[in-house]
Amino acid sequence: MGRVTERRKVIRIRDGAVSARPDTLVAEEPLEIRLNGKPLAITMRTPGDDFALAAGFLVSEGVLAEQSDLQNIVYCAGATVDGSNTYNVVDVRTAPGVVIPDITLERNVYTTSSCGLCGKASLDAVRTTARWPITDTPPVRLDPTLLASLPDRLRAAQRVFDRTGGLHAAALFTEDGELLDIREDVGRHNAVDKLVGRALQNGDLPLSRAVLLVSGRASFELAQKAVMAGIPVLAAVSAPSSLAVDLAAETGLTLVGFLRGSSMNVYAGEDRIVLQTAAVRG
Fold first, then answer.
1. Active site residue: 115, 146, 148, 179, which one?
2. Neighbouring residues of 34: CB distance < 8 A, sequence distance ≥ 6
């Protein structure tokens, strides 16, 4: 199976001094996801937690919703011409009776892009396929001080990032700030899929009391994955896209961006944030 990191020779220049040394890089390899034996999607990922990644991807696609929907996931033997197993192809088998939605090429294109093909079509697709409407969940109330503490906790838990500096991270926290799980990957969407997939495998969906924190920006795709997993709060250390904000407003998702230090922007769902209303100026 693939390694999370690899070593490569690098020419290092520091204050005019030149030296040759090995450097630790994050591994990046393609993963082909098959559904009941048929090719479905290819994503570039950091090897590891591949089964969780595939399961989480299929949650966001509306295929899987419960642990019982999943029969098994296996690496495909004979994935190459010579019959060897590259551990870069997985086949997800659904349980008998699970209805497979019509996953078209157009659907795959916009779920793997940052902004989507058509804003209205994308919003409609997520709103109509979400299994757990966020507005139906018991209210989560978060203090801004607690939210401000989460990025440091995320960073402290990033083990591979310390060695490579080249990984995105996604983490799930409780509303009290307890770290539930963290995943790292070269792709921010893969890190989220690994979190959601592990939750599905453990029978923990929907994640109706969780906060999802991502180390980069909040794209439409990440907001989509949060909504499909029933997560009520998505926070990012960088900016959201306009379509992510639109989706959050449409579905009731609380979306926080630029979560840095004691500062943050709340773009939607501010009712879940404990605000000092007298200090809020329009």
1. 115
2. 40, 76, 89, 90, 91, 92
Residues of the chain with pLDDT > 70: what percent? 82
Strand partners, 45: 29
Task: State the pairing for strand pair 70-75/89-94.
Answer: antiparallel
φ, ψ for residue 116, nearest 5 deg: 90, 160
- Contact status, residue 243 vs residue 119, Cβ threshold 8 Å: yes
**Angstrom distances, CA of residue 73 to CA of 49, 89, 94, 118:** 12, 10, 9, 32
Catalytic residue flag (residue 118): no
Region for residue 213 given its phi and psi (left: phi exceeds 0; alpha: psi -120 to 50; beta: otherwise): beta
Other beta carbons within 10 Å of 120: 10
214 with 233: CB under 8 angstroms?
no
Cβ(150)–Cβ(173) below 8 Å: yes
pLDDT for 167: 79
Question: pLDDT category, 202, cuts 50, 70, 90?
Answer: very high
Q: How far is CA 40 from CA 57, 75, 198, in A?
A: 11, 15, 20
Half-sphere exposure at residue 118, Cβ-oriented, CA atoms within 13 angstroms: 6
Give the DSSP H or E segment for 65. none
CB 236 within 8 A of CB 218: yes
Amino acid, single-letter form, for residue 81: V
Q: Are 193 and 64 in contact (CB under 8 A)?
A: no
- Count of other CB atoms within 10 angstroms of residue 81: 6
pLDDT in tens, 213-224: 999 899 999 999
